[in-house]
Here is the input.
Amino acid sequence: MRNKKLQVWLPLILSICMIAGMFIGYRIRGNMPNTGIFFTNRPKPVQEVLDLIKRQYVDTENTDSLSDVAINAMLAKLDPHSVLLPPQELEMVNEDLEGQFYGIGIEFNIFNDTINVLNVLPNSPSDKAGLKVGDKFLKVGDSALAGVHITTERIRNLLRGTEGTTANLLILRNGKQLTVKVTRGMIPLYSLDAAYMIADTVGYIRLNKFSETTYDEFMDAAQMLKKKGMKSMILDLRDNGGGILTQATNIADEFLDDEKLITYTEGAHSPKKEYRCSKPGIFEKGKLVVLANEGTASASEILIGALQDWDRATIVGRRTFGKGLVQEQFELSDGSGLRLTVARYYTPLGRSIQKSYKNGIEAYNEDLMNRFHTGEMSFADSIKHTDEKMYKTASGKMVYGGGGITPDVFVPYDTTSFDKELAKVYISGTLNDFIYKNYLNHEKEFNSFKTPKEFEENYNVDAATLNDFKNYAAKDSINYNLEDEKGKELLEQQIKTLTARQIWRTEGLYEVSNPEDKTVQKGLEVISENNLIQAKK
Here is the structure.
């Protein structure tokens, strides 16, 4: 009987409970902040505005591009290194950090609306297919590559592609058309520009970035140089803008012993993380000089800061850029990427070398130009630090935080290398065009030099080459003055150096230019005792 009564009243009881629950929930919601958790997910004002523009604006607008503007405006309020990367830019950044891409393996330039092959990478797909320096591209597949509308970006898109796919090329060689099939493959993007013995017992290594392959490249080079008798090293990190943190810490581990602290990172949502030495290093003993300048940033500064704090190296050059922020990359739904600052990094002594950005991104970006205006690029005593705190190494040396890393040995910016006439032919591209065509006209002569060292010691730019350049520049309406001795000497140096780059790429460039490089020569002086070490020439 009791069960029958309950069955009759049960629907009514449940209805009353449901109504009461809704009423209570409504009252609770009215007393809660509008978090969007209860009952509704209202769009945020940014999304509301974009929706209104899409539905109501007088003209049709691309709301995706407006979203990018809104995101960039938000990021601009954070710090100078939190950025939004569009899909195509993100792809290029990732390739650079990965140290590879898939393509055919050439360096090219556009002359008279035609693609010219400047270099064929050794053992690349193009090398295996028989492409040569001087070849001109007419077509890739059905796409013509000659004409006024050709762009570097379009060429890159046509030549790159999936590994194993074929690029059918129509080329022009010595006035004859040829068809060449090239199977695309992995093309390395080297972070090591040069590694050679710059003096009898001194090795020279130059790194242009820190990608996923940098540590392996460095180790191969260091082992090779040690076999050649390296007792001291010059590590050139000038204009190295950084890259992958762990690649820099791995290299630092090769110079520092025991379990020394290399760096640590910390942020509001990123707990403190230490990076310490964990293995015996390949060059823990021996004199070490690191070259740095205003273009040395981020991961490069981490490496330099650790070596300076532990008194392991002498830093030669000028104050570094001053980037002490760590970015993490997040992929977004539309294929773009957000590179967001998540932590600061500190040197072993606790220095933050991040320069101030409190006056906004524009002022931040003008910092390097201001260094010229204040005289810092010419005089060491003009260097200013934003962090007033000074730090002392174990040897008693004073080092500084805020605004980059100050070198131990200052080398002023070489203003003697600047020449207005030379700047004109650089900016116009005239000099690089001439180097390429002069090489093709004298290929047999240049190829008689077997090494950059032999070329540096025995090749001189003669009067005939200078006159050929003057006539070539005149076609671009540039009247180069060969009567000015200073300008003439600088031109000779550049023709020689860039010709070496044309033949041996970056290895030749640095091996031939370093004897005239004042920062490199100062590094050799620091290593030498009583100037007994003489640079090889």
